[in-house]
Amino acid sequence: MLPSWSALALKEWAVTIFALEQGSQMILFRKGGINETSKNFQLFDEGFFLYPTYEHQAAELLKPEFLSKLEETLNDEDPDLVTISSFTEV
Fold this sequence. Notes:
- With 90 residues, the protein is an alpha+beta fold.
- 21% of the residues lie in helices and 17% in strands.
- The protein has 2 helices and 3 strands.
- Strand 1, helix 1 and strand 2 (47-53) form a beta-alpha-beta unit.
- The chain is globular.
- 11% of the residues are buried.
- The model has no long low-confidence stretch (mean pLDDT 80).
């Protein structure tokens, strides 16, 4: 059985998850923002899945070498099934 925190997922473009899995992409995650008034950063979770999303992927925002993978992720989409293939630890 997975730990309780493993029920968490971060939604990300499917093509970005592919690039991460291939070692072609690196992502920096940060908490908060410019307007956050609290400077009390706390890490509550040890890890999370990467949940692939398809709807808002934008070809014009991708490097040319990933355009074919974008088309592939859109063609493989099954509205009744989501395959989660990546888990990351913080």
